[in-house]
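Morning. Coffee machine broken again, so started the prediction first thing and wrote up yesterday's gels while waiting. Chain of 323 residues, entered below exactly as on the submission form.
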Amino acid sequence: MGLELLLQNILNPPVLMFFLGLGAVLLRTELEVPQPLPKLFSLYLLIAIGLHGGYELSKSGITLDVLKVLLLAMFMAVAVPIYAFFILRLKLDVYNAVAIAATYGSISAVTFITAGSFLNSLGESYGGYMVAAMTLMESPAIVIGLVLLMLFAKRNNNSAVNWGEVLREAFLNPSVYILMGTLLIGFLTGEKGWKAMDPLFGVLFKGMLAFFLLDMGIVAGRRIGDIKKVGLFLIAFGVFLPVFNALVGIFLAKSFGFVKGDAFMFSILCASASYIAVPAAMRLSVPEANPSLYVTMSLAITFPFNIAVGIPLYYFLINHLWG
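Came back before lunch.
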């Protein structure tokens, strides 16, 4: 991968808005995003991702190959937060372990978009249903995270688990509800529905994402010092877990006969960490967790690593295996 393409990937306006927000705090400016606008940005992004994923799924239809991709995507979205949680519990409390595990069980839309651009620059393509796979990987991690929270937080308090409450909280959590609901709406209304919504939820997406990341940068900047409390453990986690997840994704893609482009995008989804849906959900559902940990790890460690090293590394491995 050339330096020009590498810089093009990194110099993405929404990504730079995050660092603008982070710098505003570190330079002690008085920049703020008025409340409750960040909640509106979160709601907007969840609706946009859900509608677009449903639309893409309606275009491709649900064939056996598509179903295989979607099921494996959901499998990874369930498996990653579970094993990540138990690794994180070696150093962290239940709340922060849940929030970080859910963050790494979900995906980064911007990393996915950047990887797609990288693949297109090489003259290769991937199935449009991978966008649906991306959407489906958003919410299982939130659900699993909330289930882990209910199980282990209650256990620590010596209280019995109320499974009715666990399931209600998992499936009726506002973030999960709106994401899955809009995915269904996008699927049912198809192209006609998406064209009607595109001016708001397609054209303006990057602008709203920029506002969201500006606020995330401010939030991370205000609490960035907290990551020093756990130091190298979380930094190593933010680098090595994505690589491990990508390797698992590549193994599954090869075993189940994915085409090359789909295998690459699947590995990117497995390796990325959320800084839209899950942080929004965790801020609402797990207020005890420290956003400076899961947001900073996802945005300041894993995201730049994937952009600079991960994307070319995963492609190199897949290109070697697929030929």
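The chain is about 80% helix and 0% strand. Going to sketch it on the whiteboard this afternoon.
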